[in-house]
Amino acid sequence: MASLVRIERFVFKNGMWNYREVVPYSFDWWTNENDNSKQRQEGFFYTLCALYALVAFVALVQLTRIQMRVPGYGWTTQKAFHLMNFVVNGLRAILFGLYKKVFFLRPKIFEMILLDIPGLLFFSTYTLLVLFWAEIYHQARSLPTNKLRPVYFIVNGVMYFVQVCIWIYLRPSQKPIAVAVAKLFFSVISFFAALGFLIYGGRLFFMLRRFPIESRGRQKKLYEVASVTGICCTCFLIRCFVVALSAFDKHADIDVLNHPLLNFVYYTLVEIVPSSLVLFILRKLPPRRVSVSDQYHPIE
């Protein structure tokens, strides 16, 4: 139910400001009667479904283009990043397309699991980008890189393990304190993702900026690193703030059926727009691999 306050409004009547009217006012603008209508719910959730499906399609097309460009390279970080983007956005598209069934799953823990998994995969997808930048930075500074990938897998493994423990604890009875802890955990990992982008994106940016050779490629790489760092930091910080707020204020709760507008704004800002922008910025294909036969020219 929306929170109401009583506001006294003065009305000019008979030449004097002498009439006071008490009117209700709702601060929870996303939970009003119009927002809870079935037509509006369908509009918001099906629009989210279409947008996620579009982003997933773009990621799949880009993955296919990369594979056709360098078929012999195997699974590179770039390919894995686009594949995970396709999976995350594809899952979101399916969930929002079937929102009528998802939001009424019982026991409710199944609903929470389905809605949490894409968010966890989103974290893994974009921390993979942090790993890629960290490897570039360490290689350029002649620092060891052999521990970076194990750290990435350990961090993600711990995250999934803790989340599974939270789901198990929530399964028998969803106590408000346990639900709040689950949301705060999600908020904390979002904060650390933003911190990772800030640290390694910033390091890579300043390293490129100090690079002595001025070239067009250097400027493009500076723009790429700065843009992706800013976009990803912003989206993870927004997620951190909103999820933490929803842990203490039920009127700011996301992933509920009667907050379709809040869901639309939230997921557009923290996943759809960032994913679209990052895929656009990182759209450049890797250089073609020149085979030995292509390099050999017989003497005539």
TrEMBL record:
It is a multi-pass membrane protein. Residues 28-299 form the THH1/TOM1/TOM3 domain. It is found in: Vacuole membrane. Keywords: Membrane, Transmembrane, Transmembrane helix. The chain crosses the membrane at residues 43-61, 81-99, 119-138, 150-170, 176-201, 222-244, 264-282. Pfam families: THH1_TOM1-3_dom (PF06454). Its main location: membrane. The keyword Membrane applies. It comes from the Eukaryota. Belongs to the plant tobamovirus multiplication TOM1 protein family. This is Tobamovirus multiplication protein 1-like isoform X1. It comes from Nelumbo nucifera (Sacred lotus).
